[in-house]
Hints:
- The protein is α+β, with helices and mostly antiparallel strands and 303 residues long.
- It contains 11 helices and 11 strands.
- The strands form 3 sheets. Strands 3, 4, 5, 6, 9, 10 and 11 form a 7-stranded mixed beta sheet that branches.
- Helix 5 runs parallel beside helix 6 (199-216), helix 6 packs across helix 9 and helix 7 (219-244) packs antiparallel against helix 8.
- The longest helix is centred in the C-terminal third of the chain and has 26 residues, at 219-244.
Amino acid sequence: YRDFEIILIDNGSKDIQAIEDLIKKHENLNIVFKKNQENLGFAAANNLGVNLAKGKWIALLNADAFPEPDWLKNLLSAAQENPHFSFFASRQIQYGNPELLDGAGDAYHTSGLAWRIYYNQPTKEFGLEQQEVFSACAAAALYLKEDFLKIGGFDEIFFSYFEDVDLSFRLRLFGKRCLYVPHATVYHVGSASTGKASDFAVYYGHRNLVWAFFKNMPTLLCLWYLPFHLLTNIYISLAFLIREKRSIVIKSKLDAFRSLPKVLRNRSSVQKMRTASAWDINRAFTKGLLAPRRASRARTKKQ
Length: 303
């Protein structure tokens, strides 16, 4: 499959020679290169790339995600065969351990937590069937460009982490649905630029999940699930503090709630855009008090 262009965004790196060598090595490809003088964050850099793109579909691919040769073809085939879906999640396999999955789309829980489905589960047993999921992990995902732009793309105040869940939530408010495509495979390192469980990743991930909840949750569902959301945030903060002696999550929550007035102003425009019913949105959530605990255990389970 050759009918594509490559938009390459250098988000403030210092290694210019590597980029020049890469473009020279692949002179046969249609590559558009854009360099940012500083790191604008995942959200802003991808928005820039989408606005430079000319195609109908946008395939996002992180620098630490390595696709199979038929990855893009299989995503587009799924899009053509399933016109009632407008964004698509890839099958992600752990780069350093190909016997385990890195994810099969994202789940969104009523507490406001989100996680990659089947993370750390055996590739031979899980993630083999095509299914609807709440969200696509933007490390390797396909979006209809028209929809992406209509809802405003990634929210740049998120900077990094959880911005793909936020984007997917808004797409669902707009009546759009996400399909997991098991034959569209990438090998994903994960947090290659920030470090897994680094203070950076923990801070932005836990701050942004609060923003995503208050910004996107329809009013009736927000009132219903708010106590659960608040208790979950308190529990996570205390767990990090007691078990890991890390206060970074508490800082993330304090900063999140300090900025809520700004987020709530954005909420108004987001909710005006909503065409899906609260019932339809609620059906897409993962439910159950113990579901986050089971997902956490699977994530940390040693194979």
